[in-house]
Amino acid sequence: MTLNNTLYPIFEGRNVNLYLRQWNALLFETLDMQFSLLKSQGSGNDFFLIDIRHYNGAVTDAMKKQLAIHLCNRNSDFGADGILYVDNSTVGDGKMVIFNADGSEAEMCGNGIRIVARYVSELLEKPQVIIENKTGIPYPLNLVENFYPELTAFELTFPKANFDSGSFLIQNNSTELINGLIPELSSTIKFTALSLPNPHIVAFVDDIAEEELRTLGEKANSSPRILPHGVNVNFGKIISDNSIYVATYERGVGLTYSCGTGMFATTLSAVNSGHVKKGEWITLFNKGGYTKCLVNNDLSGRMIGNASYIYSADINFDFENNNIISSTNNRDYNHETGAYEKLLAHVNELS
Asked: For 65-215, where are the E strands, in sequence order?
């Protein structure tokens, strides 16, 4: 819609379309809106995917946050780790905007971006796509055959990792932490800090105790003096020279079945400490299944993992009263769910 500034002098010298979008959003926030949900998971990390490209900017960040807090509530009929919003991109085939269960926005999600890649890939009918993240980084992804029988999987290419932790970890006279202590968190556990670009700290332990990880994760994300923006906390247990078990306390989520960037961060830290080698595929087991990661000589890398659908539904959401008015057109992806249950049984046999 285009307005003539001569006929409508109130808009003279102003961005008319911007004003229309803002006014449209204000109107929508007092009404209900329909959204198509696609419940999905990557390595057990579950999300709702919502394509917002046809709303022309009417879905504001405040609305994205409100939807995430409401839909991701595990005590409701829905529940998830976050929402993947698919938006337009100027550098790729689509853009991933992710809001966590607590309403915070994340820079990157290694499991979620595979799901977005599958969704966009199937719409465009091409096996290779580029998905942009919040910070504008374009990530190449491609469809992979034979990850596990009857499961759709994608390979994600990571740019070079950044071990300069000065942007998220405040230390005395240092912007790097490699296998060192963070005294405010623990006097015995040593961490490596890096960003992908979301912040991570990684520790290798003999045995993974979830309650200890939860306690450390909660402390790390409530210590603004040293971690002003919070952090993802990962425990890795070395199984062999080509396999690691990983557990993650995810910023904005809590203990999760898996974290994609957490698994790659753990692989990078394992290479750095000599547990595994560059240029070799490493299997990363977790509570939700597994992925495979490879670290290149320049500390860039690749990850392969599933991108599975669970169900889809259309909802009408009332933003003014913060509730779901209706849910229709439900469809279950039982075949994909069954195939993933077989993968989990296979993982349990190996562990």
From this structure: 82-87, 94-100, 105-106, 128-132, 138-144, 153-158, 180-181, 190-195, 199-204
Fold (topology level) of 180-299? Diaminopimelate Epimerase; Chain A, domain 1 (3.10.310)
293 catalytic per annotation: no
Q: What are the tokens at 79?
A: 């529940």
| Selected catalytic residue, list 98, 129, 185, 259 | 259
The answer to whether domain 15-23+34-157+308-350 and domain 180-299 are alike in fold is: yes
Of 102, 44, 51, give the one whose Cα is nearest residue 72: 102
The span from the CA of 164 to the CA of 194, in Å, is: 6
Residue 317 to residue 34: CA distance in whole angstroms: 6
- The domains of the chain are located at 15-23+34-157+308-350, 180-299
Bridge partners (DSSP) listed for residue 34: 316
- The list of the chain residues with pLDDT below 70 reads 1-30, 172, 351
Q: Pick the catalytic residue: 97, 109, 246, 304?
A: 109
DSSP string computed for 201-250: EEEE-SS--HHHHHHHHHHHTT-TTT-TT--EEEEEEEEETTEEEEEEEE
Which homologous superfamily does the CATH classification assign to the domain defined by 15-23+34-157+308-350? Diaminopimelate Epimerase; Chain A, domain 1 (3.10.310.10)
Q: Using CA atoms of 96, 53, 312, 302 in order, give the dihedral in degrees to the nearest 10.
A: -20
72 catalytic per annotation: no
Kind and range of the H or E element at 262? helix 260-272
Q: Are 54 and 336 in contact (CB under 8 A)?
A: no
- DSSP helix/strand/coil, 86: strand
> Before 197, cis peptide (omega within 30)?
yes
The model's pTM is 0.89
Q: What is the pLDDT of residues 259-300, one digit of tens each?
A: 999 999 999 999 999 999 999 999 999 999 999 999 999 999
pLDDT for res 15: 53
Establish how many alpha carbons lie within 13 A of residue 14's alpha carbon, considering only the half-sphere containing its beta carbon. 15
What is the chain's percent helix, strand, coil content, to nearest 5? Answer: 25, 35, 40
pLDDT computed for residue 249 by the predictor: 98
